[in-house]
Write a structure and sequence with these properties.
alpha/beta, Alpha/beta knot, 2 domains, seven-stranded parallel beta sheet, 7 strands, globular
């Protein structure tokens, strides 16, 4: 649908600074990336990250499909892993039609936009994950998220392509920023929400000690147990100071002598 007027100031410069980062995990076609970029710029978003795109990048098919959204295409960032793509994000949402039996907060796109506004008002980087066309996000990708975005659709046909999914979330963000009152809560200056890189360090530290003490000894159950443990901490919205404190606790406990259990 036509309607672009390059003389008008971009919404990306007139709306609240920041906005969610859009992260496409293993996108398969350049055309889909381009259409997602178009959907983003429609709604004033410009920060697009790609994790292991199947086809080469830069991609001419993405450029043509973006319908002139070069402001997005020209600054795309590439990452080898989803962990790296969300490392600087304090809060991550996973857009998926299935919860995969994980215990996560579940938002509609509208509710997610309201939550994003609160986070970004506190200078927290926010990211939204979208999976590849054929299979969506993996369990490990979803385990990185603090919450899930679920689009309520016809229960018998919930399939969306990447551009549709991106537009659904981006549009609700655009509406929220256009209409919402400023969010006034301010996080204390002496701390901030922990980002995913810091949380990743905590998880690796904790899991290393759990391996050492034998808690994760059952090989076939280990991946599920690790994801469940990580979900607990993802939902806690810990600050950077809390992560450092918890790592100190883990370090202290790991140095304590093990008490022998007395046999009766």
């Amino acid at each position: 649908m036509a309607g672009t007027d390059s003389r008008k100031k971009s919404a990306a410069t007139t709306l609240q600074e920041g906005g969610p980062v859009i992260i496409l995990v293993e996108p398969q076609m350049g055309e889909n990336i381009g259409m997602a970029a178009r959907a983003m710029l429609n709604c004033g978003l410009v920060d697009l990250r790609l994790v292991r795109p199947r086809d080469s990048w830069p991609n001419r098919h993405a450029v043509s499909a973006s319908a002139g959204a070069t402001q997005v295409i020209d600054q795309v960032k590439l990452y080898e892993t989803t962990n790296e793509a969300v490392a600087d994000c304090g809060v991550v949402y996973a857009s998926t039609a299935r919860s995969r039996d994980m215990t996560n907060d579940i938002f509609t796109p509208r509710a997610a936009a309201a939550d994003m506004s609160k986070q970004i008002s506190n200078n927290i980087n926010v990211g939204v994950l979208f999976g590849k066309e054929s299979k969506g996000l993996t369990n490990d990708d979803i385990a990185l998220a603090n919450a899930i975005i679920h689009v309520p659709l016809n229960p018998s046909f919930t399939s969306l392509n990447i551009a549709q999914a991106v537009f659904t979330v981006a549009y609700e963000w655009f509406q929220m920023m256009s209409e919402a009152e400023p969010y006034t809560f301010v996080m204390p200056k002496e701390t901030r929400l922990a980002n995913k890189q810091e949380l990743g360090g905590l998880f690796e530290h904790l899991e290393s000690e759990l391996d050492a003490c034998g808690f994760l000894r059952v090989t076939e159950k280990r991946p599920i147990m690790v994801r469940n443990i990580r979900n607990i901490f993802q939902r806690a919205h810990m600050t950077e100071q809390e992560v450092r404190t918890l790592r100190g606790v883990i370090k202290g406990l790991s140095k304590m002598p093990r008490k022998k259990t007395l046999k009766k």
